[in-house]
Design brief:
This protein is mostly beta strands. The protein contains 3 helices and 20 strands. Strands 1, 2, 5, 6, 7 and 10 form a 6-stranded antiparallel sheet that branches.
Amino acid sequence: MEKGSKLLTLLAIMGGIILGISVNSTQPACAKSPIKITKMSYNLKQSGNYVSFTGNNALYTKAAPLKGAKVVKTKQQLLELNQSKAGQDTFMYLRSAYTNHHTVYYKVMSFDRKIKGWIYAGKISDIQSGLVHYAKDKKTVVGGINSFETLQNSPLNDLEKNEFYHLKYPGSKNNGSELLYQLPFWCGPDGKTKPNMKSTIKYRHDVFIIENAMTRTREGDRWLVIHDLSNTNIVGYIKDGSLIPMHSVPATEGITVNYVDKATNRPVKSVIVPFAKSPKQAGMNLKTSFFDYNGLPDGYTADDDSLGFKGNSATNAIKGATLNYFIVKQVK
């Protein structure tokens, strides 16, 4: 019995060792699997999503962990591009890549198409606003990019809100001062934006107003959004300093616009718009373009239902005419 007990004990110990080896051999490996791209978004040629760099990550020829990825721009070089005064150095988003490690990379390219590559954006689990990935505090950007605006709002002064203008440099030069544009130069992916027309010479006697103004973020110069009151199709950006204020005219040489409170039907203020006839008619069409004039009485806005003018009274107003423009008090 004693020998038998020893034998059973020995077999039990050996069995335990063998079992232990068997169990341990089935444990998963601790090392992560090789990184690979599992999903890609559509590859855009250009976009309206603009980015700057945080300095957290460099720009690579492909997603950084992938084999063969090479540095296009270092972290420091990207930060230097942030400080550039040239719009060509603004970057746009083109594509997203997702990996099996739940990380996200963006393909970006400069406006002048000379620099492009991939940069780490963050993890799928991050808090995200637009393209930007944030930490749990919703403030700290965790990846290599942040959002960027090419234009900043520039408030109008009282003169710009109330004045009427002529073009100062009517002509055909593509220099920002003679023609009108959809965007200021290098503020969009199309680069130096093409002008809206070939020449402004035939509009030299037209009456213009300033709708708003913007400053280019990188260059720091100011551009105006102007409307031609005489021709509703003429609208666009032009460099600040490219307009000349018109002299005030008597009521007989213009169109008197009375601002009328819609609630009380009483006039609040009036303005005389210099007359310049619209194309293919004897009068001046103020129906839609005057809606962008900023010289309204303080605390009022145009009546949205009628765009200010009722009916067709303002579509072909003759010199010396008087029009009522209905306004409503702004809700505070």
